[in-house]
Structure formats: C-alpha cells, structure tokens
Amino acid sequence: MVLNKKQHDTPARTVTLPVSQPSQRLPGDPEFPTPGGPMIHSANTGQPITHPLGSKARVLLCSVFGPYAQNDEYGSRSINPMELYHNQVTRTHGPFSLRMFHRSWGLMLIQANLSASCTLLDFPVLKRFIEEISTEKYDVIGIGAIMPNVGKVQEMCRLIRLHQPNATIVIGGHIANMPTLPKRIDADHIVRGEGVRWFQRFLGEPDDRPFRHPMIMSGIGARTMGVTLSEKPGDVAATLIPSVGCPIGCNFCSTSAMFGGKGRFINFYETGDELFEVMLELERTLKINSFFVMDENFLLHRKRALRLLELMEEHNKSWALYVFSSANVLKSYSIEQLVALGISWVWMGLEGKSSKYAKLSGTDTLELVKMLQSHGVRVLGSTIIGMEEHTPDNIDIAIDYAVSHDTEFHQFMLYTPIPGTPLWEEMRNSGALTDPQSREACDSHGQLRFNFTHPNLKDGVETEMLVRAFTRDFDVNGPSVLRVARTTLAGYKRYRKHPDLRIRKRFQQEAADLASVYAGGIWAARRWFADQPQVRDRLAGVLNDLYKVCGLKSRLLAPLIGRYLYSKIKQEDTRLKTGWTYEPPTFYELNELARKTHDPIQSKSPAGQWIPPLPTLAQPAAT
Ligand code: B12
Ligand code: SF4
Description:
alpha/beta; seven-stranded mixed β-sheet; 21 helices; disordered N terminus; binds cobalamin
C-alpha cells in the first residue's frame, strides 16, 4: 500500500500546515494555467476559482475503471491488482494470500463534506462508467487516481468529452503530481494536494466547517484459504482518517510531498477529543470495535494520541487500533501506553543495516519487533529492495535480515522515485530516471521494475530479487494469515488476567477465534505443508501452544474445521492455477441532495456485485 514507506524516524514534533503556506511547484511544470490545457492547482495553498453554478452544480466523483488485475490496453496489470495484501504483501502466498479490497477513501471524504448534489461511483467497470455518464447529467466530474492509472484517466476524460461535453473535469489524487499529466489528458483542472477544502471552495461552499468523517468499513470481501471471511459486526475494522501528510518529509515519500512535504501536514482532527467523537460515531454506526488508522504516522501526534488514551480509559473503551508508525516513534511510548491505547497492529519500516536512510540509530528493529509481538502487537514490516547500496552480492544478506524479523506480514517494494518527491527531482536532475516523461507509468508501481538506473543492479535483475524476497519470507516464516495466531496467543496469555477489565476485554476479543478458526487453519496448513519441514514444524509448535491454552475445545475443533479448510485450500489453489483473479464490487452512492434531485439509474452493468474475471481466463469450478 505504501510505496517506499520505510522510515518514520525523526523525533516526534507536530507542525500544522497553515492554509496560506506556499506549496512547492515542480520545476518544469507547465505554466499556470497551462496554455490551452488544464489549470493546475496547488490545493494546499488555497485558490479562488469557483464553478459558475456553485453549490447548485451536480457532481460525480469516480475512481478509475476496472477490471484491475488483468492486463489491458489502459494500463491494468495482473501484477497490480486493486488489493493491498495480494499486491505487495502476501503476493507469493498462493491460497494463503489475504485477499481484500479497500474503498477510495479520498473520494468518500470529499463526498461526505460537500453540500452540493454528489454521486460517488467507486470501482466501475468501463461499461458501467459509460452507462453513468451517458445517462445522467453532471456539471462537474471529479476523478481520483494514482500515477499507474494514467491511461484510464486519459480514456475517462475522452469519454466525458464525448458524452458530457459541458461537464467540468477535475482530476485529483497522487496522479496530479505527474508533470506530463496536463499534456496527456483533456481535463479542466488538476488539483494537487488536499481535495476536500479545494472542492468546497470550487463549489462556493464554506471551507471552515469541521470535517465530516465518512462511515468506512476498512476491508471489503476479505478472503483467504478459499474462504470468505466474516463481515459481521465486530469482525471488521472501521477506517479512521485523522490526518494526511507527514512532517518528516523523507525524500522518497510521495504522501508527505503531496501534502506539503517537510514540516507540513494537514490535520482533519486536531485534538484527541475531536477524534474520540468521530470514533464513537463509527462505533455506533458500523458496530465495530477496531480502527484502521489511516494516518502516515499517527503516534507522532503525541498530544492527540495521549488525550485519546485518557478518553478511552474514562469511557472504558476496549478498542483496537491498527496504525502506521516508525520504530523510533513507537519507542517513544512505553509498552504500557501502547497496550492501553489498544495498539494491536503496527505497519513499520524495517531498516536495512547499511541503508543511507538508516537514521534509526540506536533502534534495534529485531528486538523491537520481538518485544511488540510478546505483548500481542502484530507487526507488518516493510522492506525496500533496490536501495542504492544494494548489490547482487549483498542483496541476500538484506533479504535474510528482513526475513529474520519474522513479522506477521512483510511488504517488499522496489525503491521507486515518484514524481512530486525530492528524490524524483534529484534523479531527474542527475539523469538517472529511465522514464522521465512517465510514459510507462502503468508499470511503475514498485512490484515489477526500476524506473531509474541503479548503480549496482542492472539488466532488470530487480524483478527476480523482489520475488526472491517474498518467497524467502514465505518459505521461512510460513503463511502470514496464520503467523497472526502466534502473536495473538502471546498477547492473550499475557493479558487475559490483566487487572484492568478494559484491557483484558480487548485481548479476549482478539483471541475469540483462536480455538476454532485459527486452530482449524493451522491444522489444515500443517497438512498442506507436510513436505516442508520448517514451516510444518513451526505450525505444529503454534498448534500445540494453542491446545495448551485453549484446551479441549481447540483439540476437538481443529481437525473438524481443519478438514473443511484443507479442502477449501485445495480448491483455491486450483482456482489460482487456472488464472482466477479477484475484482472489487462497484459502489454507487448518492448523498442527501443527489438522492432528492437525481433518479439513480438502474444499471445493467454489474454494480455492487462481484465482477467475475474476463471470459478469456479459465473459470474455476463453482464451489
Ligand atoms: C488505500 C491505498 C490503496 C488501496 C486503493 C484503494 C482505492 N480505492 O484506490 C490499495 C491497497 C488497493 C492500493 C493499491 C495500490 N496503491 Co495505494 N495507497 C493507498 C494509501 C495507503 C491510502 C490512500 C488514502 O486513502 N489516503 C487517505 C486519503 C484521505 O487521501 P488521498 O487518497 O490522498 O485523497 C486526498 C487527496 O489526494 C485528494 N484527492 C483524492 N482524490 C481526489 C479526486 C479529486 C477530483 C480531487 C480534487 C482531489 C482528490 O483529496 C483527498 C482528501 O484530501 C496511499 C498512501 C497514503 N497514505 O495516502 C497509497 C498510495 C495512494 N498507493 C500507491 C500505489 C503506488 C499503489 C499501488 C500501485 C501498489 C503499490 N505498489 O503500492 C496499487 C495500485 C492498485 C491499482 N491497480 O490501481 C501510491 C501512489 C503513488 C503515486 N504517486 O501515484 C501511494 C501514495 C502510496 C505511496 N506512497 O507510494 N492503494
Ligand atoms: S515522510 Fe513520514 S510517512 Fe513518509 S516515509 Fe518518512 S516518516 Fe514515513
């Protein structure tokens, strides 16, 4: 999910971006406005342009069209599915890969904060997008995208001009930082930076109202081992978006650069009290008790986090928080504080020992990960392959070092300069970029090849090295979805008798499936990996621990559920071998005014349904 996201290693400090600060223009950008082309806006600085219809305009917000996980002429790539885990974390885990989708949160946030009539079409197939724009009339059509999807944005703009010649086309999201974008697409506005306030101003709406948080379930359609996971209340987390950007401003970090770069970020919620209110609303509406906190470095905002902790204690909330954090920021809290705050899952950059970004001096990530796991904190480690210091001779050492962390999940990504970042600028100036015009943006997603000339790694060797890293991690540590059981069990053992009921309750909630689903899953996997002694014995060790703690129930359920899961794993394996891919459903959501003014079309294309793979691929047998 987070390309090149690996360090958060500067001591905590908080600086809020004042609306009036100038944001950096990219040297070589087209003039503002581009003669004959779209206007480019630096949204973080504020701008005066308003649509003539103001808040009476009818708005459509749309993500890029699918299918995503199949090669096509618009830049979809089978290697680049619309999935977080299967794309860059459990890519080589076969039937054990965690499959799941996440909505387009940026677009949801914009829709939730507009008073104008606003429809959101998320993950349409091309036919569904055409159906919408050729049936309904819109004054403004906003598309949110990232760079690899530029071919789709180009096609969507062409189609809008064809079917809705009077609509104003606005493009936002990370794609906006692509210097060649204005020349490649026929749009009216390209918006760099925070989109909510920009859109409010564009529609003449007040831009000083508190942010309304959309009600977001974090994952959709989760599935692993051939089974769709439960989505009943309490089983899925809500997504919480406290801030965007990061003040640390590492030179490769596109999410920091997007929202102002070093020293800047944008808070949607300044205080722990505001955040707590939002969390209460999410809890009430979605019936959840865990939160995927979509904030680059949530714990860096120390005052807000500690106030949230006070409120959780005061109101007796046994919430679990899944956060992104750096090792150093994590270390600035005591483990008691982290546990009390419900930190139960951490996404963390793991430094290579000799990395030039090794500013984690004094932090032993191996020790830190072990310590966190012993308190039940599940860790997703992130390692970059192809750092400047990597060579064919030392890459295995780097991979082994990463794998030795034995984190629950491990993301591997290729080092990739992204337009808008200082690193990209630096490489452009030095002539190191192999594709400065981003012509091959659809293959520049961090899972295939470099977009720069590496000093030591030549001739495309990085493609295999990346797969080697994933494979090594899987072969040594086994399936991620089951590694989770070991750490959950460790937390449960440690805290099940904790004197504070609030804390005890969280660990009990997290351990609820250990004796059944996890016991069965491990039982099945142990059989699946019968001829891989290292993984098999590891799984057997966890299963025995689990039997000791969970007793007879787990001993009875493990073979029962295990046999069922084993057959599902086999089926999933066959499915994958016949080319099955996973596509997200289409979402079609109208806000209050849109529901009044608008007759939603009865789509003939798949909407809100699973979209099957293209017929050219072999269909798996129905199960
Ligand atoms: C969730 C997520 C995903 C989800 C996608 C869900 C979806 N529906 O698109 C998943 C996991 C599937 C995913 C996949 C990928 N992702 Co991703 N992902 C993210 C992540 C973590 C969060 C995005 C988010 O919701 N942020 C919070 C919201 C509030 O911020 P926002 O999206 O930026 O939206 C704000 C503005 O951008 C703007 N805005 C957004 N849309 C629009 C539209 C208009 C019209 C306007 C005016 C403004 C506007 O306003 C919003 C509110 O301020 C970001 C990293 C990050 N921290 O942002 C990476 C990120 C967006 N992903 C990235 C990449 C590269 C990928 C992948 C290629 C995989 C990879 N190798 O990492 C794949 C591509 C999949 C595909 N086939 O398209 C890069 C994009 C880099 C770039 N310059 O284009 C990012 C920035 C991570 C990174 N640092 O490298 N990703
Ligand atoms: S700028 Fe912040 S979010 Fe980006 S990599 Fe550095 S510490 Fe992490």
